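As a warm-up, study this chain.
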Amino acid sequence: MRLPFTKMNGAGNDFVVIDNRDLSIHLDSAQIAQICNRHRGVGADGLLVVEPPRGGADFRFRYYNADGGEAEMCGNGARCFGRYTSRLIPGERDTLSFETIAGDLSSRMIGNDVEVTMSDPFDLQLDCGVSVKGLDGPIHSLNTGVPHALSFVDNLMDFDVRGVGSAIRYHRQFPSGTNANFVEEIKPGHIAIRTYERGVEDETLACGTGMVACSIVYHLLNGIPAPIKVNVQGGDTLVISFEGTKETGFRKVTLTGPADFVFEGEISL
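Now compare it with the structure written out below.
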């Protein structure tokens, strides 16, 4: 089987994109893991699959982690998905909607950037009471389409993201697993984060849903209003906006940043 694909990246978070609008492609978890393997495949943090919608959206967005398991959604992947599918609509329409396990999302082209309107966050917990070796501060959690835990640290660039992140990801407090984020304030309204991603089982250069979780908790703890700027390990700065409060819930959550085409090709499976 020769499978055509497009390679994209969103702020260094890289993806393989497959057009399966005719539903002719059937991949199992081992094949997805092979595609994402950086030594024996294309190499990616995850796989994005375009399918026809089941409801009133323009497309269905299916997301698979690098280990082959399907996940609810991915923020950086959603921006890449939005830019990719804009080419599939006559006239390259700027605004699109797509279905995910986490709910319907929408994307909008803003110059070379893509703004994605995310699903409403839920399950906010400030200070979960979780303690792991190598981390002194409290751990907070928030589901922004996928589960995230996060903590604020000093000297982010020297922090043991892989070691401490893995301990949080597999902690019994999170029976389904969680992504783990570490945050440092650069200045008011501007933070930097590093993320250990569930399913990749390592640090990635960026995580869109993680940026949203960190920005909202940062806002709650410090009273800093949106928009929040976020530096990621890949070198890009993205912008998170939202409305709402802890009491009313957060809504109109957007993630804005780059989504780039890298190359196209075919892989034999």
